[in-house]
Amino acid sequence: MNRGANSGTKLVSFFIFWVALATLSASAYSILSVLGIVPMSWLIFFYWLGTLVFLNLGLILSFWRSRDHFPISRQLAMILWGGVSIWYWSFAPLYFFLNINVDLLQLKWTVLEFLWEVPVVGLLFVWTCLLLFRPVRRFVERDMLPPDPLKLYRLVVDYPTAVGILIFIFTFGGYILGTVQNHFLTYPPFIEQMKVLLNGAIISLFLGGFFYLLLDIFLGDIRLRIEKKYALVNAARKRIHNKIFGLTLITALGSLALISLLVFKSFQITVREQVLAGIRQDISRISRELGSAEGDEAREEIIQSLRRGSRGRVMLFEPGERLPAVEFSDETRAAYETQSFGIVDDYRGDIKLVTFFEDLALRKKAVSVVYVSDFYGTVFQGLRFFLVGYALIIMFIIFIARLFSRLITRPIRLLSEAVKSAAKEPHFYFNNLSTGDEFENLSHAFSHFVHETRRSTTALKEERARLLSAINSLSLGFAFFDAKKNLIVENRAIEQVFGRAEGKPRLAVMAEKFGGGAGLFEAAERCLKTNAPVELKELELDGQFFNLTIEPVRAVAESAELLIGFGLLAENVTHAKILDKTRDEFFAVASHELRTPLTVIRGNMAMAKTMFSPELEKNRELKKMIDETHTASIGLIKMVNDFLNMASLEQQRMSFNKERFDMGELVASVVAELEPIARMKNLYLKFVNSEDRIPQALADRERAKQVIFNLISNAINYTDTGGVKVFVGVAQSSIQVSVIDTGQGISPEGQQKLFQKFQRSREEILVKDTTKGTGLGLYISRLLAKGMGGELALVRSAPGEGSAFSFTLPIAV
Amino acid sequence: MSKILLIVEDNPSVMDLYETSFKLNKYEVDKAVDGQEALDRLKSSARKPAVILLDIMMSRMNGFDFLANIKKDKDLQHIPVIILSNLAQQHDVDRGLELGAALYLVKSQYDPQEIVERVNSVLQRYGDKNSNYIPEKRS
User: Fold this and answer.
1) 3-class state of residue A734 by DSSP
2) Is B13 close to A654, i.e. CB distance below 8 A?
3) How far apart are CA B2 and CA B21, in angstroms?
4) Burial classification of residue B128, based on how many CB atoms lie within 10 Å of its CB (0-12 exposed, 13-18 middle, 19 or more buried)
5) Which of A132, A150, A426, A700 is most buried, by CB atoms within 10 Å?
6) pLDDT-based confidence at A770, cuts 50/70/90?
7) Nearest-by-CA chain B residue for A593
8) SS3 category, A766
9) Closest-CA residue of chain B to A594
10) Best mutation site among A592, A639, A702, A703 for testing chain B: the one with the most B CBs within 10 Å?
11) From the list B18, B24, B86, which residue is nearest A596 (CB)?
12) Which tens digits make up the pLDDT trace of B49-64?
C-alpha cells in the first residue's frame, strides 16, 4: 500500500516535471515563432500540442490514481490544472477545428493561443483559486476548530460557485485577449471575430459549469464531515435549487448559442456553395465567349462581366505584378503567383472567393473578388418562406400540445385551486367536478375532509373559549407556563395584578413586581425539577399580599406521564391578613383592658380577706361571697390569658426556651398538684414511670408543664368514676407522656372537632359550664406542643370507654 | 426607718390597691400618674426611693421610656425598677428586662400580698449594691 502510494506520487512528480518543461518550451517556441526566428507549420504545432496533451493526460491520470496521498491543497491544485488542460489541450482544439475553418487562419495565432496564452491564464486562475481556498484549507488540513463552523461551512459550499465564476472570467478574458491580438496580427473578418468571441463565451460557460461540478463532488466529503461534526444538517440545502437552476440555464444558453453558431456556419457554407456554383458557371460562360471575342476591349468587357455582388470587383494585373497584401492573404497571393488559374477562399478583411486566371491574349492576369456576405441577403430571401412556414408549424404544435395538456390536467388544477380556496373561504363546498372518475371521488372525499376539519376546529375553538372564560371568571390569578417558562395562557386576574407583560417574559415581569425576584424563578425551577408543588407565602406587592402556588402540570402521552409545564396560582391574601392582624391586636388590647379591672377585683378581694380576716370569721356568709368573687376573678384572668396565648401562638410570635429537664419529675410535680382535686372527686390519679432510665427532654419546661397540666386536669374533669393514669416512656426517639382516663369518652364526631378552637367536644356546645374552661385548652396545648417540636394527639377514645392522649417532646441529645 | 417606694400608675383603683397593701407592709409610698411626673419628681427631690413599681401603658411618658430615661441618669440608674403591668406578651417582657428592669410582673397573676413579697426579695438582693443581680427571666 505504502509502496504503491510512493510509486504513485513519484509518477505524479515525474509528470509534473515534464508538463512544466514542455509547457515552458512550447511557450518559448511560440514566442520565437511569432518573432519569426523559428519556423512554424501545422506539423510543428501538432507536435507541441500532442506532447502537451499526452503529458497532461498522464499527469491527471497518475494523480487521480493516487489522489488520496496528497494534501487537500495539492488535490485542489491538480483538479484546477486538470480542468484547464483537459479543456484547452484536449477538447478545445477539437471544438476549434469543428467550428472554424482553420485552413484560412494564421497558424501563429493558434500557436499563441494554445501554447503560450493558456498556461499564463491557466496558472493565474489556479493561483487565484488556491488563494480563495486558503481559509478552508487551514481548518480542514490541520483539523483546527473553526471560530464559526457555519461560516466555514458556507465557504466550503460557496467555493465551487466562486471558482466557476472565476474560470468564466479568466477563460473569456483569454478569448478577448486572443481576439484583440488576432485583430492586429491576422486581420480576420469582423464576423469571424464575433464567432471566436461567442465560441469563447460558450467554452467559458461550460468550463465554469465543469469546474463547479468537479469541485462540488470533491468538496462533498469535506462538507459532509463539517455537517456531521457541528450538526449543521440542511444548513445550506436550500441553495441547491438555485444552483441546479443556474446550471440548467447555463447549459441551455450554451447549447442554444452552439446550435446558433452551427446553423450560421451551415448557412455560410450554403451561401458560399451557391456563390461558387455561380462563379463556375460564369467561368465556363466567359471562356466560351472569349473564344469568339474580337479585340482587347471586347475581351476586357467580357472579363468584367465576372463581377458579382454589390462589392464585387474584377481587376486586371500586368504579368509579374503582385496582389496587394492589405486585401489578400498570404496563401491567396502565393497561389496567384504559382498557378495560372484558381478559385480560393480568402478571409482577410472579409470572407471572399478570389478567382484568378491568365488571359493570354491580353497578357494580363484577371482577378475577380466576390464577397460571400453580399449574398447572405439573397440566400436568406429564399430561406425566409421556409423559415416562416417552419415557425408556424412549431407554433401550431406548441398550441396543440398546450391545449391537450390543459385538457388532461384540468381536474387536477380544479382540485388544487379548491384546496387553496378551502383554506380561505368560510363556506366551502367542492361541487364543480363531475368527471365521473377517480377525480370526482377524490373531490368528494376532499369536501368531506374539509367539512370534518371545519367542524372539529369549530368545536375546539368553542371548547377553548369555554375554558378561557372559565379561568377568566376565577378570582384567583391563574397562569400556565410551558417547561421552558414561557407563558401559554393566563386569566384576567393575573393581568389585573401584574399588568400586561408587553413583550417581556411574564415570569420576569412577576419577579420584578415582587421586588426583583422573590425566588420566583428558583421556585419554578424547583417545581419543574422535583415535580412537586412549591408554595411562596405572603409575597408583598404594592401593600398587597399574595400566596403563590406553583404546581407541576403533567400530561399523559403514550402511557407515560410527561411534565409539560407548570401552573401558577396567585391568591390575594391581603384581606385575610389584615383581618388576622386586626383580630390579634384586638385580642392583645382587649386582654390588657380586661385584666386591669380584674386585677382590682382580685386584689381587693385578697386584701379584704387578709385585712378583715377576724370580721369575716364572724360573718361566714360574707367570707363565702368574698372567697367566691376572688376565685371567679382568678378564673376570668385565666380565660383572658388563654385568649392572649392563643393569639400569640397563632401568629407564631411566642418564643420557646430550649432547656433540658427530667420529664418524670415534671409529671410527678403536676400529679402532686392535681392529686387533691382528683381525691375530691373520689378518683385515683396514678403516675407510672414505665421505664427505669428516661432521657432528658429538650423543650420549654414551663410550656410543657402547661400542656401536661391541661391534659391531666381535663381527664379529671371529664371522669366521674375510676381515675386517671399517667405514663412516661420513650416512643420513636421522643419522650412520650400518656394520659389515660376511664371517663365519658369522645364520640367520633367529637374527635374530629377536638383540637379546634372553642370546642369542648365532650359535651353539647350550648351547655355552658364555666368551670370547664374556655374550650381553648386542647387547641392551645397542641399549638404549644408543635411549637416545641413535639406532638399532641388523641390515641383512642370511645363514648363510655374513656380516652387516651399522647404528648411527645424531643429527646435532648 | 421605712423604705420609700415609688408607684408609677395611671389607674387610680390599681394605685389605691397597691398603696394600701404596701403601706400595710411598712413602706412609705410615693405616687406618680405617668412617667413624666415620676421623672420630674425623682430629679427634683433629694429623697430617692429604694424601689420603683412601674406601669407600662400610661399617657405622656410610658413605662419603657421612663425606664430608659432613668437608666441613663447616673443618680437614678441604681434604683431597682419592678415593672408591674397587665401587658403579658413575651416581647413586652423581653423589652422591659432588656431596658434594665429588675423584675417584670403581670398584675393580674398576683394577689397584692404576693407582689409585696416579690418586692421584698428584690430589695434584699439589692441591699448589697456590689452583688451581681441576675433578673428573673419570667414573671
Assistant:
1) strand
2) no
3) 14
4) exposed
5) A700
6) very low
7) B86
8) coil
9) B86
10) A592
11) B86
12) 999 999 998 888 889 9
